[in-house]
């Protein structure tokens, strides 16, 4: 288990996307999944935005706003390296402090309560506010309609992957920003994984 921690607020809140990035598969081995601890958390004084013409969001510093996401503990230096590749140059990794969340109250009226503050790294948008929309990004909509193009598997996913591939071939904007199953960033990550396996065998 690694000693790095991160706060995710977009596509990486979906475990299949996170595992595909750091383990090379949306369906990791049980021992791989057990290395991570995932907990709901909130980041204060930041705001989440939709990125124009993209499936993924961004955050920027904004006093008084809050962003709900996940706090992931147990990441390794290698995981962070792969995440840096995945996020690309639109984001900068920064240290932040987030509050963990826990559910309190009766089953029918559960509420989330803020708990202790913890340190984490997160990816903050640095590619200009002109590319951001004011509306909130829809995580559940991403999971239902877009995630297949990011991780593969199933008929709907295959359709999504085809759409991404066609957009890339037509030199249109790739809504995954190269992070889809056959995108340039995903191919780079796959190549990095192959090199890791070869180096460990020597």
Describe the structure concisely.
34% of the residues lie in helices and 33% in strands. With 202 residues, the chain is α+β, with helices and mostly antiparallel strands.
Q: Give a short account of the largest sheet.
A: 5 strands, antiparallel
Rg result: 17 Å
Order of helices and strands: EHHEEHEEHHHH
- Overall geometric form: globular
Q: Which class of secondary structure composition applies to the elements?
A: alpha+beta
Distance between the termini: 23 Å
Fraction of helical residues: 25-40%
Give me the count of strands.
5
**Spans with pLDDT under 50 lasting ≥5 residues?**
154-165
Strand content: 25-35%
Compute the average pLDDT: 82
The neighbouring-strand order within the major sheet is: 1-3-2-4-5
Number of DSSP helices?
7
Write the layout of secondary structure elements.
Layout: E1 4-8, H1 15-23, H2 30-33, E2 37-50, E3 57-75, H3 77-87, E4 91-104, E5 111-125, H4 139-145, H5 147-151, H6 155-169, H7 184-201
